[in-house]
Amino acid sequence: MNAVVYKGEYEVAVEEVEEPEIEHPNDVIVDITTSCICGSDLHMYEGRTAAESGIVFGHENMGIVSETGDAVSTLEEGDRVVMPFNVSCGFCQNCEEGYTGFCTNVNPGFAGGAYGYVAMGPYPGGQAEQLRVPYADHNALKLPEGREHEDAFSLLADIFPTGWHGTRLANLKPGESIAVFGAGPVGLMAAYSAKLQGASEIYVVDQVPSRLELAEDNCDAHTIDFREGDPVEQIKAEHGGEVDKGVDAVGYQATDPDDVDEDTDSFAYDPAKENPAVVINNLIRVVRPTGELGIPGLYVPEDPGAPDEMAAQGRLGIDFGLLFEKGQALATGQCNVKSYNRYLRDMIIEGRADPSWVVSHRVDLEDAPEMYERFDNREEGVTKVLLEP
Ligand SMILES: [Zn+2]
Ligand SMILES: [Zn+2]
Fold first, then answer.
1. Beta pairing, strands 80-83 & 2-8
2. Residue 276: which pLDDT band, with cuts at 50, 70 and 90?
3. From CA 158, how far away is CA 188, in angstroms rounded?
């Protein structure tokens, strides 16, 4: 079958790979109908992780069950399903407590597994024609049959729950104000989640005009272009002070607002402008004393392409003194998708939520190499790309 294979820095190819097989009685095989390209795939694509060539990408997967292992009891051939990007067992201590992003059984020596991701276990990705799903009764969420809501449901694998998780990490309450740094797909979903949860005011910070427009149009957000000056001062001026809560939807490959070129039309990622602590420090500045910060943005313990030696070891120059002085709390970590996906699915089915506005492209799997390049360049209008095998 065909799959998107990582070849090395800035290179993926669609290649023939072996079809997955049932390896355990709890597995199912899914014929992929949609698999999304994610911002976190770009960390690997840019060579900023320990990913080696040969990995099949794709952790945001949905499709139709085509084969079931003998011990699978709730799924059958023909079921339409979406899988959390987390691979989890359902019965370890963390899974039992709802932390399926930190399963201790699926990836020995590590807490957490995922499809198609470096260091996340032996699970090839779903940017392919087929996917093997382990612990399938637990890891596959059933969807209504047909093709309805295909775009929206595909976002249940990662970015809609992850954006929602950002607001939960910040413990957002109805009526509170919130600043979301980053208007990539996860930041946009965090802003949308804040709207659904009744935030009074939502500020979204980015530099790409088309992304800020999406936030304004779909999340009723105040948009803050950090090329126009310190985003913290801009938010404080517009809001009349600090906000209640903040979300970091950027992570370690953050562009320093002090280093941006105001006249450029290119938003391609530039390591020379990188400051891995800048978003967290801006959140500490912009959130009020005793406010809370949610950090679903990705940080890594080792970064082969880091701007300095400290960052290479995952150490950041965080203004911890100011955080302490303000009595703020912060919460981190990847999303436990299973905590949210069932409920967000039902909001989509009932018409209470429709995150599909974030999708900009649905293309053939064969077009993946071109779309990786365009998404990596933060090309205007390339927000969320869905692949269809
Ligand atoms: Zn993702
Ligand atoms: Zn587990």
1. unpaired
2. confident
3. 13
* Residue 28 backbone phi and psi in degrees, to 5: -125, 160
Domains of the chain: 2-158+336-388 (3.90.180.10), 159-332 (3.40.50.720)
pLDDT tens-digit map of 150-196? 999 999 999 999 999 999 999 999 999 999 999 999 999 999 999 99
User: Which pLDDT tens digit goes with each residue over 321-337?
Assistant: 999 999 999 999 999 99
Question: Which residues place a Cβ less than 5 A from the ion ligand 1?
Answer: 38, 40, 158
How many CA atoms lie within 13 Å of 313's alpha carbon, on the beta-carbon side?
Answer: 4
Q: What percent of the chain has pLDDT over 70?
A: 97
- Which residues have CB atoms below 5 A from the ion given as ligand 2? 88-89, 92, 95, 103, 105
CA 348 to ligand 2 center in whole angstroms: 27
